[in-house]
Write a structure and sequence with these properties.
The protein folds into 2 domains: 113 residues, Fe,Mn superoxide dismutase (SOD) domain (Helix Hairpins); 106 residues, minor pseudopilin epsh fold (3-Layer(bab) Sandwich). 54% of the residues lie in helices and 9% in strands. It has 11 helices and 3 strands; from the N terminus they run ααααααααβββααα. The chain has a 3-stranded antiparallel beta sheet with strand order 2-1-3, with helices on both faces. Helix 2 runs antiparallel to helix 11, helix 4 packs antiparallel against helix 6 and helix 8 runs antiparallel to helix 10. Bound molecules: manganese (III) ion (MN3). The site of manganese (III) ion has 7 residues, from helix 4. Manganese (III) ion binds next to helix 4.
């Protein structure tokens, strides 16, 4: 097993290597991290949208999806690769590893990695936790965990939407799993990742204006409400399983 792969497993905190890797691979996250941790593959790439631009209509419009993925996310990827070019030794670590230990990143590019590395992994998650004809009540382990930590889904949803509405300026609202194993709702400014605070991001909604303004204008609360119609609970269950192993 390569050092990078061992580091990757360490990052996940998994004890059953092959099993964890397979589970992670099936979630798609592994592709992102391995692309980073394989020394011969030294660039981050923009993952394709897993559905058409118009697939989340009417809740999220096609034009928003196009600009959001092809321009905003693509720019984070481009800026991150430009930063890595100056510091080739950083390419041996995944973006998640760099964000988890941001102080290890050279100061000259720390803010660039924070903003664009965060932008890259946040959006990579975001596309995957949505799907056409999604939504409904949470299923499986995430349904049970939400019921245990928030009383019920309606209570959780209300608290999540309230936190997203109150996040001042640009940022994200998250459901994270803390070190104590409990789920909690947090928000971050800009493109900051919950990983920077030692929390594992289970799901998050982008409350930057670019995520909703074309369709919802100033009505962020309406966007937050509509978003639940495109939630992909299967992928969120995958992420909870990864977090539980960590
Ligand atoms: Mn965005």
């Amino acid at each position: 097993m390569s050092l990078n792969r061992r580091k990757l497993i360490f990052l996940l905190g998994a004890t059953g290597g092959a099993f964890a890797l397979n589970s992670w691979r099936s979630s798609g996250l592994m592709d992102v991290a391995l692309a980073q941790s394989t020394p011969s593959s030294n660039t981050v790439s923009l993952p394709p949208l897993p559905y058409d631009y118009n697939a989340l209509e009417p809740h999220i419009d096609a034009q928003t999806m196009r600009f959001h993925h092809d321009n905003h996310h693509a720019t984070y990827v481009k800026n991150l690769n430009a930063a890595f070019e100056k510091y080739p030794n950083l390419k041996s670590q995944s973006v998640a590893q760099l964000l988890t230990n941001l102080n290890s990143v050279p100061e000259a590019i720390r803010t660039t990695v924070r903003n664009n590395g965060g932008g890259h992994i946040n959006h990579t998650m975001f596309w995957r936790i949505m799907k056409p004809n999604g939504g409904g009540e949470p299923t499986g382990a995430i349904g049970k965990a939400i019921a245990a930590d928030f009383k019920d889904f309606a209570t959780f949803k209300k608290q999540f939407n309230d936190a997203g509405t109150k996040r001042f300026g640009s940022g994200w609202v998250w459901l994270v799993r803390g070190n104590d194993g409990k789920l909690k709702i947090t928000t971050t400014p800009n493109q900051d990742s919950p990983l920077m605070d030692g929390n594992y991001p289970i799901m998050g909604n982008d409350v930057w204006e670019h995520a909703y303004y074309l369709k919802y204008q100033y009505r962020r609360a309406d966007y937050l409400n509509a978003w639940w119609n495109v939630i992909n609970w299967d992928e969120i269950n995958n992420r909870l399983a990864q977090a539980t192993k960590a």
